[in-house]
Amino acid sequence: MANTDATLEPIAPDTAVELYLTDRQAELAAETLSSYEYKLSHFTEWCEREDVGNLNDLTGRKLLQFKQDRATHLAPVSLKGQMDTLRSFIRFCESIDAVVTDLHNKVLSPSLSQGDRERDVLVAKEQAEDVLTHLGRFQHASMHHALLTVLWRCGARSGTVRAFDVQDYDPENAWLRAVHREGTPLKNKEKGERLIALSPDTCQVLNDYVDHTRKQVADDHGRQPLFTTQFGRVSKSTIRETCYKWTHPCQFNGGECPHGRDMDSCQALTPPEKAPSVCPSSRSPHAWRRGAITHHLTEDVPVEVVSDRMNVSPDVLEAHYDRRSEEVKVEQRRGYLDGL
Predict the structure, then answer these.
(1) Is 280 a member of any domain?
(2) Which of 134, 158, 250, 267 has a C-alpha 20 to 30 A away from that of 168?
(3) Chain segment 255-292, per-residue pLDDT in tens
(4) Is 312 exposed, middle or buried (0-12, 13-18, 19+ CB in 10 A)?
(5) What's the domain range around 109?
(6) Helix then strand then coil, % of the chain, to nearest 5
(7) How many CB atoms lie within 10 A of CB 242?
(8) In a domain, 259, yes or no
């Protein structure tokens, strides 16, 4: 039965998606916009199959049917990503009188089990680039910018990042040296010691940070930490809170919450220092590491190189860190086999 709300204006699903993407174009990075377009393409295709030609007719039951259809094709984490994007889109549709008011509250995003979170939650490439682009523009060479740049580009554990001293950074040779020391142990102790090669743009961020922003303080052992606050060496909790805070999606999408929350009362933002992990989209340091490792592998960096760089055995890497889809893996293998 057609929706009888006289305030609604008829609109086709694909037309509404085009309006939504155009409206978000100025706010989002190109890759993020492309990701939204891809996720919403599954919704418009479903609408076509189910003869939903006018979004005025969309109901909570039909949204549930779409979710159940996608659940047969996606892992829980991927399904959650698609439904969260759909909720944001439906909120936009409410604002242009395309669907009934508050319909976005009927977009049911799956709750992830602890196992799903431990295995699959990561910082995606587009999310990391959104964060680093924003910080590079508005907080260039701040401690947060430098720390998250190293986390993403090096895929290091938070304990390793915390352990770096200023002397461990060699800008001339473009590397960081991970060293197991008293007070800042590495997880694998001496076996975790290594040189980590840096790209020129990473060095530029670190150079500017060391020269202009770093707090000139020593730690309790008289050493000069690389990453500092006014109180000394950066703490594990500060690293964790930094990772959580800068992966709140509302930092980069014009203040809109993809989870339908009121920004004025959201517990994840009032204040962010006290409740950094409340946001479902925020990511821990380990998610940054898992995302960095997956990104390196997706870019065809050999497993052996990633293993040495990230200080993780190939077996553990495959079991706990590599989150490439089977589709990505088969296309990468195809690249090596073409012409044989």
Answers:
(1) no
(2) 134
(3) 677 777 777 777 777 654 444 456 778 888 989 999 99
(4) buried
(5) 13-119
(6) 55, 5, 40
(7) 22
(8) no
